[in-house]
């Protein structure tokens, strides 16, 4: 790391006196988190929240011991509760439970440490360059070379070694950063592994592999869904030559963690980790639906502007998420996925449905075996 | 500057020409900040890396004509070319940016030129930009080297600072002016409006259509 001095370094250090919101983001005049959320909660609300936490604690058991049992018995209760939002104080733990990352961690003791300490990655410089550009307004990540930035670096470097096909891709930092606000480095690392290698849902490494194949696929599917659910808007997009890569790439690549209000990001992640990528489509559709009547009247430039700057009302999770869940997309997504694959592979290949069976055991053993054998060599 | 804001807010699309421009170059060289300096007169020390593409416009006068620049800012990381290269198509101008304090970003300029040759229209106007010239004590690419390279490759060249705004307007103005002169000459000689990206008058639809290559690429199943 060059210890050069430059304008880059002249920013004032972290000023502890600067006011932060309840998530630790430094407040600006028009802060990311609307004040509505911060407004003093009534005692009634407070009690309700307490009750909710107690329920959750019971569901999880000590250190997560009852979780699996509970999920097996009452998956719908779990789903409903998660959609209402995981209590913030339990979020880190629950995320690890629902993503399957806990199991990966337990199956691979010491692996993370090895990756961090002994391995070098060709992406190191790229990662360093982006560290201060990831959640720059959060106190945890603000301080140059502080604990937040160091953890972020470690996790990203470890992953880039663990999976050399993926390496480091811009956007991963936002995911790692988000996770690090709720769990340790090692836990965050395994959660990323769980997501990208597909511990519970279908693997998402294609979001970051060369050619960004999964980004292309998701954007395509999203475009189809828009047309099917909002024909008028779909037509308008077509007339104005707007396509999803102009506004939705980052929705998928960072799972809404790049430029949306943080409290929305968290609620999306609660559902995303439990139900899978489908919620990103649903939230995307909900955003469009919410602004539909404005969008259909806007010409190209304003349209694009609006698609990148949704009004605050649109990003309130308690409005947006119910709207999102009203879009039934699961089965259609599976169909679209098949069509897309067929199209890509041509008529010959057809045995590609593997990615659609998130066989936990299969994927986990693959992930763990290639770690334990040699962390240096990723698959192939 | 009032004009900048006004053009956007009214959506008042009064311009003679609309030019589609792309900003390319390695990650971290300052593309997004050049764009925000030019279109909003803002700069940020810790700006997020661009994921995919961003978009902004500004209208300026060139030789008495009103020219609207429709600028696509792309993610610099190599992996993102899968998405961003589609945006080169139909662009009439490209600002190819490197960082004067990072030799590697200048070395990569050749690769970016190849990218443009592979994906952009052959008559695209390219300007080489050495950004961050304010960091004098960190400079690692000599101005003369870049200038002679640019000359060999037939590119215009300028050094800028998005931070203190030096030459930012001039860079954009130069490119837009160059495009304008080529277009107007062409229009005279062939009576054809030249590159597909450029139309006179109320042409926002058509011009937005320059991104058609982007939309058609995707879903056709
Ligand atoms: N000193 C100085 N710093 C600059 C200048 N322009 C940009 N920067 C800084 O360089 C870093 C990267 O700037 P960006 O504009 O985000 O770079 P980019 O080329 O858009 O990067 P990608 O989006 O990742 O491709 C930021 O920290 C900026 O503050 C400049 O002219 N002078
Ligand atoms: Mg950028």
Automatic annotation (TrEMBL), chain A:
<dbReference type="InterPro" id="IPR000195">
    <property type="entry name" value="Rab-GAP-TBC_dom"/>
</dbReference>
<feature type="region of interest" description="Disordered">
    <location>
        <begin position="1"/>
        <end position="50"/>
    </location>
</feature>
<dbReference type="Pfam" id="PF00566">
    <property type="entry name" value="RabGAP-TBC"/>
</dbReference>
<feature type="domain" description="Rab-GAP TBC">
    <location>
        <begin position="85"/>
        <end position="276"/>
    </location>
</feature>
<dbReference type="GO" id="GO:0005096">
    <property type="term" value="F:GTPase activator activity"/>
</dbReference>
<feature type="compositionally biased region" description="Low complexity">
    <location>
        <begin position="361"/>
        <end position="380"/>
    </location>
</feature>
<dbReference type="InterPro" id="IPR035969">
    <property type="entry name" value="Rab-GAP_TBC_sf"/>
</dbReference>
<protein>
    <recommendedName>
        <fullName>Rab-GAP TBC domain-containing protein</fullName>
    </recommendedName>
</protein>
<dbReference type="InterPro" id="IPR050302">
    <property type="entry name" value="Rab_GAP_TBC_domain"/>
</dbReference>
<keyword id="KW-0343">GTPase activation</keyword>
<feature type="region of interest" description="Disordered">
    <location>
        <begin position="343"/>
        <end position="380"/>
    </location>
</feature>
UniProtKB/TrEMBL annotation, chain B:
<dbReference type="Pfam" id="PF00071">
    <property type="entry name" value="Ras"/>
</dbReference>
<dbReference type="InterPro" id="IPR050209">
    <property type="entry name" value="Rab_GTPases_membrane_traffic"/>
</dbReference>
<keyword id="KW-0636">Prenylation</keyword>
<dbReference type="GO" id="GO:0016192">
    <property type="term" value="P:vesicle-mediated transport"/>
</dbReference>
<protein>
    <submittedName>
        <fullName>Uncharacterized protein</fullName>
    </submittedName>
</protein>
<dbReference type="GO" id="GO:0005768">
    <property type="term" value="C:endosome"/>
</dbReference>
<keyword id="KW-0547">Nucleotide-binding</keyword>
<dbReference type="InterPro" id="IPR001806">
    <property type="entry name" value="Small_GTPase"/>
</dbReference>
<keyword id="KW-0472">Membrane</keyword>
<dbReference type="InterPro" id="IPR005225">
    <property type="entry name" value="Small_GTP-bd"/>
</dbReference>
<dbReference type="GO" id="GO:0003924">
    <property type="term" value="F:GTPase activity"/>
</dbReference>
<keyword id="KW-0449">Lipoprotein</keyword>
<keyword id="KW-0342">GTP-binding</keyword>
<dbReference type="InterPro" id="IPR027417">
    <property type="entry name" value="P-loop_NTPase"/>
</dbReference>
<comment type="similarity">
    <text>Belongs to the small GTPase superfamily. Rab family.</text>
</comment>
<dbReference type="GO" id="GO:0005525">
    <property type="term" value="F:GTP binding"/>
</dbReference>
